[in-house]
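QA checklist item 7 of 12: single-chain prediction sanity check.
[x] sequence parsed
[x] length recorded as 345
[x] structure emitted
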Amino acid sequence: MEDIVNKTVLFDYFSGRVSPLQKKSIESWLADAANQDLYYQWLHEWEMSRLQANVNWQHAYEKTALRIQQTTSETDSDDQLRPLTWRIDSARHWLNRNWLIAASIALCLLAGGWFFRDALLYKTVRTGFGQTRELTLPDGSVVTLNANSSLRFPRFGFGEWTLSFDTAHQNPRLVELSGEADFSVRHLPNHQPFVVATNKGLDVTVLGTQFTVFSRERATRVALRSGRVQLTTQQKSEPPLIMKPGDLATLNRQGKLAIRRTAHPEVMASWKDHRFVFEQTPLREIAAMLHDNYGLTVQIADQQLARRTISGSFTARNANEILQLIAQLLQINYIRENNHVSFTD
């Protein structure tokens, strides 16, 4: 297969000059996820080497109108007996209908091109419920994604040296996080910043450090283990905050940042080892964690039960193990039906 699919063949494929057999071979080759990055790399190279023509719609419109006018003047005598207004209305109707169709097609192509270009320029890595994944970014930084999370970053030029007289104005290594992830950021010789943008409007800017970011519907938190990071929110009145090792930052629903000290910032990344650390954690908060990490909908019998707490460090590799653990520690019952769980005394 490698002999059949190469850079030259793919360039012909992008230009529409391949045989049905070659096209089938390329589609089979592309079905392997390991080949997709190379495919997008060659597609980007092919696109950049070919200029795209801009459509002069005004010239096309005038040319079509002139052709219709000439056709109208050259009609036979029977057509000349028809009312002039009818011919004008027909021409207008023809123009309006066809230009509407052309505009619709152009709009569809533009929308499709936008999504295609986004897939070409950016890569998104996702994890499912109950799944964690470690990945190494092109700059050498290591990211571990927790369950039900996603990370988006550029396919090309990530972490490459940039020519600039002022390093403060260099383009940062920007990634976008939804969910929860642990970062070990590599410091580059050109001091290029690394920025984690969350879906809650909090940006974490670092040079080289280890930290954990939690950004879900119920809360946004950052725990710093080593190095220094700067936190920036969408609130223009809020100045950026600098974190030191051992700091735990929390962003509330009003967009306000608060920082407190914690003796064990590594606890926020304990999920990497399938370990759960609870410190007087109420059952309602554990229920939210079960929803975020495993997609479970949890029902608690009453408010008194929801306020009962658990403390300690426990290991569980899947949702069933942690459900059994909770039931044993609190000496309560639970019923699980597919993704629905009910806790009762």
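[x] summary fact logged: Residues 59 and 149 are 49 Å apart (CA to CA).
[ ] second reviewer sign-off
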